[in-house]
C-alpha cells in the first residue's frame, strides 16, 4: 500500500527514569539521563521536541521493579533498569507550561487505583495543558507490583482486561456523563458559577467498582484524554480496537508488522468503528549522523557503552521468565506466564537463543533499529510506513538528549522535504491535531453512550441529593 501524501506522526518515547529501552547508555560521557530527576531536564526536552514539531512525548511507566532476572534486583539497581523510576504525571504541568502544542501520552496502570482519583487527575491535567493529554492504558505485568501493594500475585491476564473494561466505563461516566458543556457559566452578577441543573450524578454498580455522585472536575477541553493502548494478545487487541485511538506496537519484520496492522484495522471495523479511527505507532530506534559512515561510527561508539545483559534483565520481567539460567547458545523454551503474552509468544513461534537476544539488546531491544544519514533514515521510515500501513513512530532515546537533537536536525528536514512530515502544528487539542475532527471522541466511540451532553442519562445533581436526604 502506498500513500504518498500521508504525513508521518511522531512521538518521542521516554520514561521518567535513567535506563529506559537502550540499557547501559547512561554511562556514555554525553548522556544526561542521570539528571532525570531535575525538572529542567524535562522542560528542556519538551522545548526541544516542540521545536522539532513532534506530535507528542509518550511516557512509559511501570508499577513495580524488574526482579525476575537472577531472581533479584542486583543488576536492575546497578544498571538503573527503570529503577529508580518516578511518577510520570508529575512532570506534565511543567512541560505544558513551556510548550503550546506538544502532546503528552502518559502511561498509568489502572490496576492499583480507583477510577475516580485517576479520572480527576487526568481531567485536571487536561485543563492545565489546554487539551494536550493522552493516556496509555496499561494493566500491569509485574508480580513485584502486587507484592508492593500487599497482594499475593498478578491477577489472571484476561481478568485484568475485564477490570480494564469496567475501569474505562466508569471513567467515561466521569469525563463524559456528569457535566454538560454549558454547566460552568461564571456569572458574577447573578452569583452563579455553575448551573446546578447541568451537573449530573453518575451511578455505577459493577463487578469491580461502585460509584455514585457528581464528578469533581468540570469538563476539560478534550474531556476524555486521547486513549493509547499497547496490548497485542487476542484479548488485548479486542480491548484496544474497542477503546483506543492510538495503539503502540513492537516488531522487527515488515511482513509481520503489516499483518499486525491489517489485523488491528479489521478488528476496529468489526467494532463498528472506522479503520482510520485508530492510529498505529511502531517503536523504533535511530542512530543518525551527517553521512552513512559517520552514523556507523556513532553506532559503534554507542554500542561500546551498551549493556545487553541489562536488556536481558528487562526482557526477563516482560516475559516473566528468568533468562539468566540459560547458556548463550541455548534456545529459550516457551513457558506460559502471566506477563506480556504478545512478547512471550515469540518463543512459541521462533527458535531464539540468549545470544540472539543479547545481539538485539545491544541497541534497539524489541524495536527495529535504523542507521544512516538523515536522508537514508527518512527513506527507510517512509518505506516502512508505505509498505506496512502504520501511521507513525514512537522514537526511543539512545544518548539523551543528543539522539533526539540528531533526529530533529538530520531526519525531520528530510521527511519534510519529501512532504511526509508537517511543517507547522495543526490548531487545537491533541485529539484535533491527530484526527482533525474536533476535541471530543467521535459518536462511534463506546464513550458516546455515557454522554450527558447529548442525551441525559442521569438525574440533575440537586434531584439526586433531594432523593438521598428525603
Ligand atoms: C510496545 C509496548 C509498550 C508497552 N509499554 C508499557 C508500559 O510503559 N508500561 C506497562 O506497564 N506496560 C507496557 N506494555 C504492556 C502492555 O500495556 C500490556 O499490559 C501488556 O502488553 C499485556 O497485554 P498483552 O498481553 O495483551 O500484550 C507495553 C507493551 C508493548 C507491546
UniProtKB/TrEMBL annotation:
Signal peptide extent: none
Transmembrane annotation, as ranges: none
Positions bound to FMN: 61, 107, 157, 161, 232-233
Keyword Mitochondrion: no
Luciferase-like domain ranges (all copies): 33-325
A Pfam family: Bac_luciferase
PANTHER family attached to this UniProt entry: ALKANESULFONATE MONOOXYGENASE-RELATED (PTHR30011), C2H2 FINGER DOMAIN TRANSCRIPTION FACTOR (EUROFUNG)-RELATED (PTHR30011:SF16)
Protein name (Swiss-Prot/TrEMBL): Dimethyl-sulfide monooxygenase
The organism of origin for this protein: Acinetobacter stercoris
Amino acid at each position: 500500500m502506498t500513500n504518498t501524501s500521508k504525513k508521518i506522526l511522531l512521538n518521542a518515547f521516554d520514561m521518567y527514569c535513567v535506563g529506559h529501552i537502550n540499557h547501559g547508555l547512561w554511562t556514555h560521557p554525553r548522556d544526561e539521563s542521570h539528571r532525570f530527576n531535575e525538572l529542567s531536564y524535562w522542560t528542556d526536552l519538551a522545548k526541544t521536541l516542540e521545536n522539532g514539531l513532534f506530535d507528542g512525548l509518550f511516557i512509559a511507566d511501570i508499577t513495580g521493579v524488574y526482579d525476575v532476572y537472577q531472581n533479584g534486583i542486583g543488576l536492575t539497581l546497578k544498571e538503573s533498569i527503570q529503577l529508580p523510576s518516578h511518577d510520570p504525571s508529575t512532570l506534565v504541568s511543567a512541560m505544558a507550561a513551556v510548550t503550546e502544542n506538544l502532546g503528552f501520552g502518559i502511561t498509568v496502570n489502572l490496576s492499583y487505583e480507583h477510577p475516580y482519583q485517576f479520572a480527576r487527575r487526568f481531567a485536571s491535567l487536561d485543563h492545565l495543558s489546554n487539551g494536550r493529554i493522552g493516556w496509555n492504558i496499561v494493566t500491569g505485568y509485574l508480580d513485584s507490583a502486587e507484592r508492593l501493594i500487599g497482594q499475593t500475585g498478578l491477577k489472571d491476564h484476561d481478568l485484568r482486561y475485564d477490570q480494564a473494561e469496567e475501569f474505562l466505563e466508569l471513567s467515561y461516566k466521569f469525563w463524559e456523563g456528569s457535566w454538560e458543556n454549558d454547566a460552568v457559566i461564571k456569572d458574577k452578577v447573578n452569583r452563579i458559577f455553575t448551573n446546578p441543573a447541568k451537573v449530573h450524578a453518575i451511578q455505577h454498580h459493577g463487578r469491580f467498582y461502585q460509584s455514585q455522585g457528581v464528578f469533581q472536575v468540570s469538563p476539560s477541553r478534550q474531556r476524555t484524554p486521547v486513549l493509547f493502548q499497547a496490548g497485542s494478545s487476542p484479548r488485548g487487541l479486542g480491548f484496544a480496537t474497542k477503546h483506543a485511538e492510538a495503539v503502540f506496537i513492537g516488531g522487527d519484520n515488515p511482513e509481520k508488522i503489516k499483518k499486525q496492522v491489517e489485523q488491528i484495522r479489521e478488528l476496529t471495523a468489526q467494532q463498528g468503528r472506522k479503520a482510520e479511527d485508530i492510529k498505529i505507532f511502531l517503536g523504533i530506534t535511530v542512530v543518525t549522523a551527517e553521512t552513512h559512515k559517520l552514523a556507523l561510527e556513532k553506532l559503534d561508539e554507542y554500542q561500546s557503552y551498551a549493556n545487553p545483559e541489562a536488556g536481558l534483565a528487562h526482557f526477563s520481567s516482560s516475559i516473566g521468565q528468568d533468562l539468566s539460567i540459560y547458556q548463550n547458545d541455548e534456545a529459550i523454551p516457551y513457558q506460559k506466564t502471566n506477563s506480556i503474552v504478545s512478547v512471550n509468544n515469540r518463543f512459541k513461534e521462533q527458535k531464539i537463543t540468549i545470544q540472539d537476544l543479547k545481539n538485539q539488546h545491544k541497541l534497539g531491544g524489541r524495536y527495529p533499529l535504523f542507521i544512516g544519514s538523515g536522508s537514508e533514515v527518512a527513506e527507510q521510515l517512509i518505506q516502512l510506513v508505505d509498505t506496512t500501513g502504520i501511521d507513525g513512530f514512537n522514537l526511543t532515546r539512545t544518548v539523551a538528549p543528543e539522539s533526539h537533537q540528531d533526529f530533529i536536525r538530520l531526519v525531520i528536514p528530510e521527511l519534510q522535504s519529501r512532504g511526509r512530515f508537517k511543517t507547522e502544528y495543526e490548531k487545537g487539542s491533541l485529539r484535533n491535531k491527530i484526527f482533525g475532527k474536533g476535541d471530543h471522541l467521535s459518536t462511534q466511540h463506546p464513550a458516546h453512550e455515557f454522554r450527558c451532553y447529548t442525551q441525559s442519562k442521569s438525574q440533575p445533581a440537586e434531584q439526586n441529593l433531594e432523593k438521598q436526604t428525603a
